[in-house]
Amino acid sequence: MSEVIVIAEGQSEQSFLKRVLAPYLSEHVCYIRAQLIGTPGHKGGSVSFDRFSRDVGAALKQRKDTYISSMLDYFRLDSKWPGMNDLNQAMRLGRKIDKSEIRVILQEKTLERLEELFPQYSIPTRVLPYFSMHEFESLLFSDVTKLSEGLRRNIQDVQYVLDSFDGDPESINTDPSKAPSKVLERLNPEYKKVLQGTLIATSIGIPKMQNKCSCFNHWINQLLALS
Questions:
Q1: What is the pLDDT of residues 24-81, one digit of tens each?
Q2: Domains defined along the chain, listed by start
Q3: Of residues 15, 34, 17, the one with CA closest to residue 206
Q4: Per-residue confidence (pLDDT) for residue 174, from 0 to 100
Q5: CA-CA distances (angstroms) from residue 85 to 81, 102, 154, 185, 223?
Q6: What's the half-sphere exposure (Cβ side, CA atoms, 13 Å) at 176?
Q7: Would you say 73 and 131 are in contact if contact means Cβ atoms under 8 Å apart?
């Protein structure tokens, strides 16, 4: 049995963690507890490493047998986040970086910095950072049938969005106006991020998301390996 504290980006992620991911993982004797980054009073926006590291430090000190993870949006990380300088410099030089490399760089650099800050807490074995490539809502494109039903839109409209990103849900976002949540709001102006996002995610299920989203799948397998 393992217990994992997951530091989340916002209320949509927190609801997903509590109502969709936690029940699934509990079946595998892995128990997660979601908390918003920088609480109380966190309202989203840019995510700073200072705020994250304070939360990690506090969680590590509470108990010695818990693990710490995260569910944060890559595109919301501030420029001082460990690894962001490496990524930005590579992009300025015109090198194309795929999502797997982004995941590896952010995870490795984040762990390196946390180990410098908290050398006494076995960071490499107790912390498993996860970064959504863009937004939690990208996972909902793992099943266009369930998503179109949840949005009450024609399935072709949803499929067109996914096809525009080569069928990869985690790639949906080329600029802020094309963020997954913005796409869903355009498909259905009445879309409510927390409520409907969680309901649609529940109907899709974690295995389908793992099958379609490689970075998410890597994280889930890391969590399952703890049990």
A1: 999 999 999 999 998 555 555 568 999 999 999 999 998 888 999 999 998 889 889 9
A2: 2-134+212-224 (3.40.50), 136-204 (no CATH)
A3: 17
A4: 65
A5: 8, 12, 41, 32, 28
A6: 2
A7: yes
Cα separation, 152 vs 82, in Å, equals: 41
Write the pLDDT tens digit of every residue in 51-62: 999 999 999 998
Please give the Cα distance from 30 to 223 (Å, whole number): 7
The predicted model scores a pTM of 0.92
Q: How far apart are CA 227 and CA 218, in angstroms?
A: 15
pLDDT tens for 148-183 read 999 999 999 999 999 999 999 999 886 667 788 888
Residue 190 in tokens: 């009445």
HSE (CB half, 13 Å, CA atoms) of 104? Answer: 5
| CB of 136 closer than 8 Å to CB of 71 | yes
Please state, in angstroms and rounded to a whole number, the distance separating the CA atoms of residues 182 and 204.
20
